[in-house]
Structures are given as C-alpha cells and as structure tokens.
Design a protein that fits this description.
Elements lengths: L1 E2 L11 H7 L12 H20 L8 E4 L2 H12 L5 E5 L4 H9 L3 E5 L9 H5 L6 E7 L11 H10 L3 E5 L18 E5 L11 E5 L37 H17 L1 H20 L4 E4 L10 E6 L4 H12 L1 E2 L1 E3 L4 H7 L6 E5 L6 H14 L1
Parallel strand pairs: 1-11, 3-4, 3-5, 5-6, 6-7
Antiparallel strand pairs: 2-8, 7-8, 9-10, 10-13, 12-13
Helix pairs in contact: 1-7, 2-7, 3-4, 8-11
Amino acid sequence: MVYLDNAATTYIKPNAVYKAAGTAFANSGRGGHKLALKASLEIENVRSLLADFFCVPEPENIAFCPNTTFALNYAIHGLLHKGDHIIISGMEHNSVARPAIASGAEVSIAEANKDGFVSVASVEKEIRLNTKMIAITHASNVTGTINPITEIGALAKNNGIIFLVDAAQTGGILPISVAENNIDLLAFPSHKHLFGVQGSGGLYVHEDLEISPIIQGGTGTHSLSLEQPLLMPNSLEAGTQNAAAIVALGKGIEFLNSVGKEEILQHEQCLTNYLLERLLNMKNIIVYGTKEAKKQVGTVSFNIFGKDCVEISNILSTRYNIATRAGFHCCGLAHKSLGTEKSGTFRASISYFTKKSDIDKLISAILKMN
C-alpha cells in the first residue's frame, strides 16, 4: 500500500519501535521487584530522551498521557476557570476548541488568513485584561501551515499569559525548544512523527505552573493520602502507564536522533514541494494553504472541482491501494477559515518513509479521476 495519511498516524515505523511495542512489561512504580523497577527505569529513560529532544530543563516536567487530546485537556481544564479568558485560533483542532469551550472560560478566536496562517497581530488584538491562556497549533492538520510560535510565545510572555502549543503535527519534524519558543505548555503525540505507536503522548508543563489534576487515582506515591499528589509528573499520571507504548516512543526518538532532524525535515520538504508542483500544474485542482513547502509541514489539502473528496479517497483506497484522508479532519474551525465547511478537503500527508514513487502513484491516480 502507498501510505499518505501520516498526519493521522505514521504507519511505517523503525523496526525497533515495532519490537518495543510488542514487549511485555510489569507495572511501573507499583512494586519493588526487579521487573517493576525495570519498567520504571525504561519509562524514565524515555522521559529524559523527550526532555533532551524538546530542550526541557528537567525531565520531571514532562507527564506521559494517553494521547495529545488528553494532554490538551489536562492543560486547559487544569488551569482555566469561569471568568478566565482563552485565545485560540481559527485553525485549531477540536482537541483544543472543544475543551476550551467546555472549560467555562471566555473564548476568543484569532482569525487565520486564507492560507491558514495565524499572525501575531491576529492574536494580539484578542488579548483582554482577563486573558489567561493562548492556545495555538504549531502547524495545521488540514493545510500544514506553520504558525509563528516563537513570536506568539513572546507576545504571551510579555503580557503574562500562559502559552499552550499543540505540537501534534510538528513534534519530530520541526525543531522545538520550550525556552527559545517561549512555551509554557507543550502537548505532543507519540504515534505521528515521533514514530511511536498509539496509546501514548505527553505534556510539558513549565515549572512555575501547577495544573489541577482532572483525573485522580493511583500513582505509586503518597498512597496513604486521599488527595492526588500535586508534584509533576505524578499529578498527571494517575493509573497504570502504557509502558510498551512509552518505550516504543523512546525507540522512535532514538531513530530520529540517529538520522538527524535536519535530514528528516529536508526529505519531507523536498517531497512536499514535489507534490505541490505536480498538483498546481493540474487542471481542476484547488490547493489550500501556503503552497510553499518551507512554510508548511508535509500535509497538503486540495479538492478536485466537481468531485466529492470522500469519494476520491475511497476510490484511491479500493482501486489504487493508496491510503489518504478526506472530510473535515476533526477541525471545523479550520474549514470555516478556509471556506471549505461544506465540502471538506482531500488530504495527503508525508513522512520520512514516504518515497517519490508514492507521490507519482498518487498523481497518476488523480489524473485518471480528474
């Protein structure tokens, strides 16, 4: 199969990831025997790998979560209250937009331009006296458009506002430094471009922030207390951890470190540019986003005039054995910003394991349907 749905999850992984994901582990932090201790050591090793990868000063400021959606919910519901104000953007995934609305805080939506880009000025004009948080996607899961998180983070810092970044589409591709990018909270998945498997993700929390736990339970520490420990990372890690998924994530990071983030980014940008050039030279195709590989990650959305995007994706799967995605991508705000709220879009997304021949097969199939 030609797999071009990497914005949803990377399907092709390094072999070490597959091996780790199938490994049995005892329960981390729930016993003093050597198997439990081994699981704990493995998990803490991955926490340290993540800290180095995202330039986090202390590994304990990273909490493992089941996925990015959980991480974003922890951040939003754990810090916002009625009377607070949060700014999100017109390109946010529902995993930001829905908890923001449900939090009881006042919500403002910073406008995105026609390419799905959220400017600093667009965010700045939404700031109020009671603005407590700015939550921005680093790159859109619909258009791939990269947002200026360093500058938006500086704006937040200068105004005493907490800055939350959704790195679902950029963790593993773009360089991220929580200090240089002025990030207070960073939510990320393991199963996308960090090459881990489903069932794990994480949340970085700045040491000056204290998130109220929205899930309580066993942590393996302070067991005599009926209150959830507030120290990171235990405060956000109630219950049994998915040790196999976390260790697999570590193998994904080790692979990224061995290859080099610059090489991975260059490969994806080269293929994204190739895909964009082919699409932009075709008739009856409308491409959304910046249409510039250096201004987006390897996610490209488009439509064929007169064709239903879901039908196209289904035909590609059944007739040509090509995996893509079509529809609204769990991102209603983005489609309102792009003017595609009635049609949705067709999306092809690239990873380091994507080949030029995969793009050629996609283009060839589209030409036959166009």
